[in-house]
Design a protein that fits this description.
Length: 743
């Protein structure tokens, strides 16, 4: 049976490379102990030099050969190393890989020695022009290091290399599962095997089947179909039922290898008249996500990756996400499966297409992405073009061919910003940035595609650089930012030929000097880099059934003089309530209804108040109260102080328990609020984090509140205990957050 050993702990790291490091034990000085995921150099929040992490570094780790490995294959799996890796075992090169977003394996077997073995990884994190997305400019950063998980996998000489489990006849009474088992036989003789497949639901056996097969030396595949499957529950966005598939191979002596993969039964297809999930039309409402975090870039552990999916689903009420512009963390995708968040995943790239060798790496990226992720029910579409590149017929014919051959169950797409582009994919996906505040909101799909009739069509980006917005910008701007997102989704919702729209983007992100605001940040998110919401986040958040989660978010600082000319009108209230009652200084001033006539294309239009006797420059200014009413009941309310005073430093931790593995981490938001509990977007006080116990702050201990709030991530140490964390500003000390750290 296989053994899998997580190899994240206990690496030695040097932020430089010398060829002599290949030899075990050379250059003890200069190495520090690190755990994975790891960024090769922590960076400040902004105004850093992005060349600071673009260097060649060395990661090395020893492990002890075990007697039980005799006669087995020992493989090392690397989930993500930016951007080029060379792997040495005991002084000899055993493998290399180009590309920072896809996994690779290295067979260590031949070079293993009894006792101690040393794995050295030379990690080139420079922007090498031979590797996508590099070669020209890019609007994001590709942070360096070994930033995902690494494993040792010990398998029999004949082993299961991969499994592709394809649900079939999904909408029929009786469903089927066609499983392709990929076998590797490293011996020189053919092996007679029984290949078995079990379908399980929450540990319970649903169906099983097996097949006697002969595995030739090298690679071979075996298909096993389980049919007549009754009582299977579909995977859907509101009810994401998951099943496990266990695959095993056995010979006369017993089981040689087995593995699990997780699947869901669903049918997802984009048609010329929209997106259909399990035969039901669903309007895709999504955002683009970069997998980047402050200070450590991509190097965040499973919990933090998973939390992003939760934020997208439960705070932003999305039903879809695009993994712009590369395959993202497997942990993020696992969570998308679990919570019912649809994913459009794409290969690495940004506008630039390199030479033939570069294109070959991109084709390999297509293969690696699909083979890694083809069992995720959440993924409904493969992006097989370099984001926003020009047409390149032969190249894209090939990427489409590869995708269709590997995975005939999913459609292909390729994101462009050009009209009438060579339509080689199944879905025409367009970044439509036409809306700049005026009448024009989205283009007609046929104008874009220049096809005779309508084709499957989706808007994959809008807004972004058209209207960068900081969380602490003036009220008019943050409101307009939110309205632009609303208008585009409204228009998409009204156009029967648009399957959905993905806004640019979920979170602010670090970028190169030639993009963004010059401080190495693109302020394009509906949340900031700490995942703290701007008003646009509240538009998204409000698009959920109020019985699931009532939302009431007036998009206002509730001050009389922040806007030009003063006042708070037009007052936009993002809500899913039937109506909103407003009180001023405790006095009822009326009930207000969602602007359904103005925004008929979204499920829950906001309340928009254009006129009201309130807050004009020179008039009296009052405390305000907003009450959301659903089915005649008051379900949610929000108060505003006429004269806000910084009152309290509050903490909002995502988790109160971490694993004592030296990698696990969680976010704690610190926010100064006024007497009504509202954030103070123009507060800039300094803040210091005080941490005791088995953990550490990621990033600086001393910083400043950004727009009245900031977050820090806390990383667990390898010992058990309790972390206590407090924030201190010149005016306040927060309550103490206690985070248990457990084995
Ligand atoms: C698009 C691009 C994105 C981002 C965005 C900003 O052109 O695909 O990566 O740069 O613009 O609005």
């Amino acid at each position: 049976m296989r053994e899998q050993i997580l190899l994240n702990q206990g690496w030695e790291f040097a932020p430089l490379w010398r060829d002599e490091f290949i030899q075990p034990g050379v250059g003890a000085e200069g190495f520090v102990r690190v755990n994975l995921p790891h960024m090769n150099k922590e960076i400040p929040y902004n105004y850093f030099d992005e060349r600071d992490y673009q260097f060649v570094s060395c990661y090395r780790r020893s492990f002890t050969y075990k007697a039980s490995w005799a006669g087995k294959r020992v493989l090392a799996d690397f989930d993500g190393v930016m951007a080029y890796a060379e792997v040495y075992l005991n002084g000899k090169l055993v493998g290399s890989h180009k590309g920072g977003y896809t996994p690779f394996e290295v067979d260590l077997t031949a070079g293993l020695a009894p006792g101690e073995n040393t794995l050295v990884v030379k990690v080139d994190s420079t922007e090498r022009p031979d590797i996508p997305p590099f070669g020209y400019v890019i609007d994001y950063l590709c942070y360096g290091g070994m930033y995902r998980d690494t494993y040792l996998r010990i398998v029999d000489p004949v082993y299961i290399e991969n499994v592709f489990a394809k649900p079939k006849a999904v909408l029929g009474e009786k469903k089927a599962l066609e499983t392709t088992v990929f076998l590797t036989n490293t011996t020189s003789e053919e092996q007679s095997l029984t290949v078995g497949v079990k379908l399980l639901h929450e540990g319970k056996l649903i169906a099983e089947g097996s097949h006697i097969a002969v595995a030739e030396p090298g690679k071979s595949t075996v298909d096993i179909v389980l049919s007549e499957l009754a009582g299977i529950k579909l995977w859907d966005i509101d009810d994401p039922n998951l099943y496990d598939v266990e695959v095993s191979i056995a010979d006369t002596q017993g089981v040689k290898d087995s593995c699990f993969t997780r699947i869901g039964f669903r049918e997802a297809v984009v048609k010329p008249d929209g997106f259909y999930l399990n035969g039901r039309k669903v309007m895709l409402r999504g955002l683009n996500r970069h997998q980047a975090f402050p200070y450590v870039g991509y190097a965040m552990p499973p919990r933090v990756q998973r939390k992003d999916a939760d934020i997208l689903k439960y705070e932003l009420s999305l039903n879809a996400v695009r993994t712009s512009h590369y395959p993202q963390s497997p942990h993020f995708l696992d969570r998308c499966d679990e919570i019912g968040l649809l994913v459009f995943e794409e290969i690495p790239g940004w506008q630039h297409i390199g030479d033939k060798d570069w294109q070959a790496v991109a084709c390999e990226n297509v293969r690696e992405m699909i083979k890694r992720d083809w069992n995720h029910p959440s993924i409904f579409l493969w992006g097989v073009r370099i984001n926003e590149s020009q047409d390149c017929h032969e190249f894209y014919k090939e990427t489409n061919r590869i995708a269709r051959e590997l995975d005939p169950t999913r459609q292909t797409a390729g994101v462009r910003y050009i009209e009438g582009s060579d339509f080689l994919e199944d879905v025409y996906t367009m970044n439509d940035f036409i809306h700049s505040g005026g009448e024009l909101v989205l283009r007609d799909p046929k104008q874009v595609t220049k096809t005779a009739g309508y084709v499957p069509y989706m808007v994959t980006e809008f807004n972004g650089h058209m209207f960068p917005t900081k969380r602490f910008d003036q009220e008019e701007r943050v409101v307009e930012h939110a309205l632009r997102h609303l208008r585009v989704h409204n228009q998409a919702g009204l156009d029967p030929h648009i399957a959905g729209a993905f806004g640019w983007c979920a979170f602010d992100y670090n970028t190169h000097y030639d993009f963004g605001s010059g401080d190495r940040i693109c302020y394009h998110g509906v949340m900031d880099m700490f995942r703290i919401p701007k008003y646009a986040a509240h538009f998204y958040g409000s698009q959920v059934d109020p019985h699931v989660r009532p939302v009431l978010e007036p998009a206002t600082r509730w001050s009389r003089g922040d806007r030009s000319i003063g006042g708070v009108l037009p007052l936009v209230i993002f809500t899913n309530c039937d109506k909103v009652r407003i009180k001023l200084q405790g006095r009822d001033v009326g009930e207000f209804y969602p602007a359904k006539a103005r925004y008929p294309g979204v499920p829950y239009p906001p309340v928009v108040i254009d006129q009201m006797e309130i807050g004009e420059w020179g008039l009296e200014w009052f405390d305000g109260e907003f009450i959301g009413i659903v089915d005649g009941e008051e379900v949610i309310s929000k108060k505003y102080a006429a004269a806000p005073v910084a009152t309290k430093l509050v903490t909002i931790p995502d988790d109160l328990e971490l694993k004592a593995d030296g990698m696990d981490a969680t976010r704690v938001v610190f926010m100064v609020v006024d007497q009504a509990g509202n954030p103070l977007p123009y507060l800039t006080d300094a803040i210091e984090f005080e941490l005791e116990g088995p953990g550490a702050i990621i990033g600086p201990r001393q910083t400043a509140l950004i727009g009245g709030a900031i977050a820090t991530w806390v990383r667990a140490a390898e010992e058990e205990g309790v972390i206590t964390l407090r924030g201190r500003t010149p005016r306040f000390e927060s309550e103490t957050v206690e985070i248990k750290v457990r084995k």
